[in-house]
Amino acid sequence: MRNVVLQGKIGQGCYGEVYKAIAESTSSTSEFQQVAVKKITHRSSSCMADFEREIAIMKGLKHPNVVEMKGVLQDPEVVLIMEYVPHGSLKSYLSINKDWLLPEDHFLKYALDVAKGIDFKVGCSSAELFKI
């Protein structure tokens, strides 16, 4: 990714802001695509370490249900370029579409399925996860 043009802020976290942007692909076709760009707003050493850790984790994640990392730019500042998701975060999507989504009992089943998956990966019990 190169030649990134920010189009507007779409989110904010503890140490950074996320912007909708257009970026030019580094492939031979030089096509443009919609992306999300995460920038650091707090430049403390702990925030930079957290951001670098997030980048390292994102590099290793390849799953259809996880936002894809497109790249990292380091000049003039470090930014994380990610797949743009039109509906925003899962939280905002669920709140916007709450009237026509599945009944609550289905959400509980899905939450339990997620807990079982985490239980398998992490090795702690589902009951411990729900206490967090």
Automatic annotation (TrEMBL):
The keyword ATP-binding applies. PROSITE patterns: PROTEIN_KINASE_ATP, PROTEIN_KINASE_DOM. Transmembrane segments: none annotated. ATP binds at K39. The keyword Membrane does not apply. Keywords: ATP-binding, Nucleotide-binding. Residues 4-132 form the Protein kinase domain. GO terms for molecular function: ATP binding; cytokine receptor binding; non-membrane spanning protein tyrosine kinase activity. One of its GO terms (cellular component) is cytosol. Gene3D superfamilies: Transferase(Phosphotransferase) domain 1. One of its GO terms (biological process) is intracellular signal transduction. Signal peptide: none annotated. This is Protein kinase domain-containing protein. It comes from Nesidiocoris tenuis. The lineage of its organism: Eukaryota, Metazoa, Ecdysozoa, Arthropoda, Hexapoda.
